[in-house]
UniProtKB/TrEMBL annotation:
<dbReference type="GO" id="GO:0005524">
    <property type="term" value="F:ATP binding"/>
</dbReference>
<dbReference type="GO" id="GO:0006260">
    <property type="term" value="P:DNA replication"/>
</dbReference>
<comment type="function">
    <text>The RecF protein is involved in DNA metabolism; it is required for DNA replication and normal SOS inducibility. RecF binds preferentially to single-stranded, linear DNA. It also seems to bind ATP.</text>
</comment>
<dbReference type="GO" id="GO:0006302">
    <property type="term" value="P:double-strand break repair"/>
</dbReference>
<dbReference type="GO" id="GO:0003697">
    <property type="term" value="F:single-stranded DNA binding"/>
</dbReference>
<keyword id="KW-0227">DNA damage</keyword>
<dbReference type="Pfam" id="PF02463">
    <property type="entry name" value="SMC_N"/>
</dbReference>
<dbReference type="InterPro" id="IPR027417">
    <property type="entry name" value="P-loop_NTPase"/>
</dbReference>
<dbReference type="InterPro" id="IPR003395">
    <property type="entry name" value="RecF/RecN/SMC_N"/>
</dbReference>
<dbReference type="InterPro" id="IPR003593">
    <property type="entry name" value="AAA+_ATPase"/>
</dbReference>
<feature type="domain" description="AAA+ ATPase">
    <location>
        <begin position="23"/>
        <end position="353"/>
    </location>
</feature>
<dbReference type="GO" id="GO:0000731">
    <property type="term" value="P:DNA synthesis involved in DNA repair"/>
</dbReference>
<keyword id="KW-0547">Nucleotide-binding</keyword>
<dbReference type="GO" id="GO:0005737">
    <property type="term" value="C:cytoplasm"/>
</dbReference>
<keyword id="KW-0234">DNA repair</keyword>
<keyword id="KW-0238">DNA-binding</keyword>
<dbReference type="InterPro" id="IPR018078">
    <property type="entry name" value="DNA-binding_RecF_CS"/>
</dbReference>
Length: 358
């Protein structure tokens, strides 16, 4: 299992430089709105993803007046301690693990899988398909080791086919890219279907236990209509040449969540959607643990949002049972912590300054 044992941070958002020795099971993070609670979660999220859950542009993460942000973490994985360093400026990103340069973000994901539960998760239900593909493929990375190399090869071919379309290449010149996209895309489609079958089963277990009334069906749209993706790409060469991009393939896939034959985006209340979102995070956490042999670190921003106290207690019980390391932000006040989390750490943030409370 993965545990973040220590975090040194400098230059992130409004947070003052700090060295934090972290609890192996549960850390509560309190403070007023705007104090820096979410910024601390961003720092922890960066350790496993290499980017923020809030901003795509690094410059917004860096404390005003600082040239870069720097994170140094001691991470325990399966009884062995690793030293991870991340430095980001507006122009350069550097990752180092145990003294060696890391060239890809997959090294972070392999060491410290993580999950975030916050208000942005509603995008899984009511925003564009890219949010759902990102959720799907993050879990699939752990579920099937063949996924990542196929996904990388697919995206390389997609980038080159789109460039060729913009340059008005002949149909014959598109053939190699069509072949690679068809070959890798068909395999990834099969990986996704297998993963979604396992995910739907785990999802319904948690959804029912959190009080959800309806069985949930995950409706998968793979991104093209024919049987043979390569043949469909070839048939649509002329159309895509006019559009200057590739319209068919796994990069156009989507998943929707249905209950009683209806899309829950249009028929569930905000509270019901939050229950489903919690079940989605718990289900993927269970699968990652089974597939990766390591509990993801779970970050929860404002646990009380859209969850009544009873469901907060139920969620915290499931999280405690998961064995994951938890980081939970909240406004000062009581949380319905289960007995299993009675031993925990409490960090308080005041205007960016982090202190540990007894």
């Amino acid at each position: 299992m993965s545990r973040i044992r220590q975090l040194r941070l400098d230059g992130i958002r409004n947070l003052a430089a700090a060295t934090l020795d972290l609890h192996p099971r549960c850390t509560l993070i309190s403070g007023d709105n705007g104090s820096g609670k979410t910024a601390l979660l961003e720092a922890l999220y960066l350790l496993g993803r290499g980017k923020s859950f809030r901003e795509n542009q690094t410059r917004h993460l860096i404390n005003h007046g600082k040239p870069h942000l720097r994170l140094i973490a001691r991470i325990e994985r399966d009884g062995r301690e690793h030293l991870l360093g991340i430095e980001k400026s507006a122009r350069e990103h550097r990752l180092r693990l145990d003294g060696e340069n890391l060239k890809t973000l997959s090294g972070l994901a392999a060491l410290t899988p993580n999950q975030i539960l916050n208000s942005d998760n509603f995008a899984l239900i009511d925003q564009g398909p890219e949010h759902r593909r990102r959720y799907l493929d993050y879990g699939l990375y752990y579920h099937n080791p063949a996924f990542l190399p196929d996904w990388q090869r697919y995206n390389y071919a997609l980038k080159n086919r789109n460039a060729a379309l913009r340059q008005n290449w002949r149909a014959a010149d598109l053939a190699p890219w069509n072949h690679i996209l068809g070959e890798t895309g068909s395999r990834i489609d099969a990986y996704r279907r297998a993963y979604l079958a396992a995910l739907e089963q785990a999802l319904n277990t948690y959804h029912a236990e959190l009080g959800g009334l309806d069985p949930i069906h995950i409706h998968y749209q793979r991104g093209w209509t024919g049987d043979d993706l390569a043949a469909q790409l070839t048939a649509n060469n002329e159309r895509d040449s006019q559009l200057k991009h590739t319209r068919d393939g796994i990069h156009r896939a989507d998943i929707r969540f249905h209950a009683d034959g209806r899309d829950i985006a249009h028929h569930y209340s905000r509270g019901q959607q939050k229950t489903l979102i919690c079940a989605l995070i718990l289900a993927q956490t269970r699968l990652i643990t089974a597939d990766n042999g390591s509990h993801p670190v779970i970050l929860i921003d404002d646990i009380a949002a859209e969850l009544d106290r009873r469901r907060q207690h139920m969620l915290l019980n499931f999280l405690a049972d998961s064995g994951a390391q938890l980081y939970i932000t909240h406004i000062d006040g009581d949380l319905p912590l289960p007995d299993a989390l009675a031993d925990h750490q409490h960090l308080h943030i005041d205007a960016g300054h982090i202190t540990e409370k007894p």
